[in-house]
Amino acid sequence: MSYRDLWLSPAPNVSNIIEGQSPKVSIFGVPFDATSTYRSGSRFAPNAIRDAFLNVEVYFRDLDVDLEKVCIEDLGNLKQTSSVQNMVVAVQRVTEELRQMSKVPAIIGGEHTLTYASYSAIRGASLVVFDAHLDLRDEFADLRLSHATYLRRLLEEDDSIDAVVIGARAASKEEWEFAEQRKVKIIPPQDLSLEEYVRKVKSSISQRSVYVSVDLDVVDPAFAPGVGNPEPGGLTSRELLAVLTALRGCSILGFDVVELDPLTDTGSSAALAAKVLALLIALASR
Ligand SMILES: [Mn+2]
User: Fold this and answer.
1) Residue 81 domain boundaries
2) What spacing in Å lies between the alpha carbon of 133 and ligand 1's midpoint?
3) For 198-240, how does the pLDDT look when each residue is reduced to its tens digit (9 = 90+)?
4) Shortest CA distance to 148 belongs to which of 41, 264, 258, 48?
5) Does 15 fall in a domain?
6) Cα–Cα distance measured from residue 150 to residue 73, given in angstroms and rounded to the nearest whole number
7) Spacing, Cα 231 to ligand 1 middle (Å)
8) What pairs with residue 214 in β-bridges?
9) CA–centroid distance, residue 218 to ligand 1 (Å)
């Protein structure tokens, strides 16, 4: 090994290469925020999450998983594009390629539009979304495919998708009606004990195989102020982490963490995003 290999690395990069093991989880960033309707800036999130990731503890005592002993590859970021169509094609194909190699894609956004592409490449799994919003608009700001409409487009293409939206509290009347028609399961933030809330979420997930999408705005802006569309009345960060930990019985086929806006962040939202990423890697690697 050279001194270059020993001490230098392209930063930020969260690969953890372990000799003799092949990575089960493959991370890639999607620095795309071209359809953001309020505060754009999530294009800067992938590297902000990596910076925070390198500074949070990654031993999960509840799961007894230490990420320092888990082989992880970080593939870097998708090439810059402002075209929704190009981003969708690239994310879909990379995700498919990783699935064919039996790797779990761990995608760091970027805005929520990317889930349209990544989930399309997985299929068959329940779609477990954490989001303040339903993202079921028919169109928004003259766009048919954006971070406010991606879930509607998915459900229109395949009405058999088993979708659960946890923490949802902000949507138009039409979106709530569409959700009811399409039998999207919605679990808003509720005044339940943590144990009861976790139980409620668990009972709403019908399949063992899941794709998990975490829009950070599911958490109250008091805990995560640096997001594209902050929405009061959200989960606490502890509730989010507890509900995610409860997915330990599921088989996680892929996941994403989206909508962090480092430009309006104090650092607390990036730390939460990094913790969520680490926890999902821990769950997926078991
Ligand atoms: Mn949202």
Assistant:
1) 21-284
2) 5
3) 999 999 998 999 999 999 999 999 999 999 999 999 999 999 9
4) 258
5) no
6) 28
7) 8
8) 130, 257
9) 7
